[in-house]
Each structure stands twice: as structure tokens, then as C-alpha cells.
UniProtKB/TrEMBL annotation:
Taxonomy, superkingdom: Bacteria
SUPFAM superfamilies reported for this sequence: NTF2-like, Sigma2 domain of RNA polymerase sigma factors
Species, as recorded: Streptomyces formicae
Signal sequence coordinates: none
Cited InterPro entries: ECF_Sigma-70_Domain (IPR052704), NTF2-like_dom_sf (IPR032710), RNA_pol_sigma70_r2 (IPR007627), RNA_pol_sigma_r2 (IPR013325)
Domain RNA polymerase sigma-70 region, residue spans: 16-75
PANTHER family reported in the protein's UniProt record: ECF RNA POLYMERASE SIGMA FACTOR SIGI-RELATED (PTHR30173:SF43), SIGMA 19 FACTOR (PTHR30173)
Lineage: Bacteria, Bacillati, Actinomycetota, Actinomycetes, Kitasatosporales
Protein name as annotated: RNA polymerase subunit sigma
Amino acid sequence: MDRGDDGVSIVELVEERRHLLDVAYWMLGSRSEAEGVVDETYRRWYGLSDRVRAGITVPRSWLARVAGGICLARLTLPWRGEGGGRAGGEGAGGLWEEDVRGVLLGVMDSLTPAERAAFVPNDVFGMAPGAVAGIVGQPEPECVEVADRARRSVRVRRSWPTKPGQHDVVARAVRQACVTEDAVLLVSLLAPDVTAFFDGGGKVRALARPVHGNEQVAHTLLTLLARPPRTTVHTQSVNGRTGLVVRYDGRVAAVISLDTAGPHVIQVWATLNPDKLRTWNQPGTPPGPPGRGTA
């Protein structure tokens, strides 16, 4: 079973971004320019390799130094462009081939078993398993195993559909488990092969890769939703079905939608990207039920 890392709490994510915005605003005197600096800072963070990121013991300090450097560069070279291609001397053909392989590997890694079925040669493309195995650089038996998992998952979803009322019950139970930090209850509500996705949009230090398995997803969610007094979790309509809305200091910091099959959650989608949360923070948006213990 795949293991994700511990992740980062909502509080740390929000306060880290606020700190970077304060640094950039203090240096540049412009809110819009500060936003651009912070976006570029996180782009550079995600441009690092996993090994390099893992070696940074205090990410907030690293991010602040990078943000300060970007500000200094803008102050000393105001007309310098920020674009530019990647460094390196590889030919176009080599880069294209590596990019294609990277995209395929990334998709295979990020999709759930059911979604990976779209890449199963016998089911969709009519290609032999060995051909796709060669493209993604994985052994043929592993590709076949992925296809089997996908088919089993599809059968489960078709044979055990979730009615709206049942989905609401599951979503509220998930919220209760998160609010009370009940790991045992939360694990029981998640399917064994559940997958969680965290969309930070490269603008907060959210997990870059999906987390698989009920124990791993439960641990990551409880870490994300660690709730000091200023953090609240409510159930609200998210994309037409009951989901979770997380607020920090009264502002929406995360929106979590849940895909269910029968009495279990099979997918978790956590949106942490500040750009995508702007509509949730517009004036007139319902704030949700008051208090920490309400649904």
C-alpha cells in the first residue's frame, strides 16, 4: 500500500502564505506584485526535486529567502522578464520524448485505479499490455495488476451506488470524525483503496502527490484539519453534494468534496488553491453554521 507523508495543517499553510505576502508587500509596496512574488516562490518550490524538498528542514524559511530574493531582483532589475525556457542542452526531440514519458508516469501515479482503466490497453486503446508497459517504463505484470484493480473498483461502484441521503450521512460522519479527531472512526468510513488528492495550485505547500489507503488518507486529513480555536469544519454543498468546508479566521481555507460508494468514501478532493477559493470568500457567501461543534 502506498504511503503519503504527514502533510501540513491548514494553520501552517495559511500563515505561511500570509507571511510570504507580508514579506513581499513590505519590500515592493504593492499587493498585486506581492501576489506575483508568492506565486513565483511556490513555483520554484515545486520545481525542486522530491529529494531536495525533503532535505529542506524549515520550508517556511527557505520560501521567505526565495521570496526576498525575487523581490530584490525586481527592485534592482525592474524591466527584466520572468519567463524563459528550461536550462539544458537537450535537443527538442529528446525533451519531447522525456516530457511525454513524464506526463504518462504522472497521470498513472495521480489517478485512482478506476481512472487508470482509461490507460488499460485491452479496455480502451486495443493495444497489447506490453506496449503500454514500455511507454510508462513499468513491468507488464504491474500494468496488468493495475487493470485488474480498476475493473474491481468499477464493479464495486456499479453494484453499490450511493443515494443522496446516504452520501449525506457518510459526509457528516466524516466531518464528525475529523472534528473529534477520531482516527478509528475516520478509517472505518474510508474504503481500503481510497485516494485523496490535494490541489494547492502550486500556491500553498499542499501535498503534490495523491495519498492512497484508508489509514494513510485518514492520517493526512487529520493532520490537515488539526483545529486550534480559529479553525472550523462544516458540512455544506460542494459541487452539488455534501462536502466539507474548512475556515480559518472566518475565511475558507479548504473545500473538500467526497466521492462515495455505499457506506464508504472512495475519493477525497481537497481544494487549497487560494485562486479557486476566492468565490467562497466573496462578500455575501454563506459563512456556514456558527461554532466548532455544529455541522
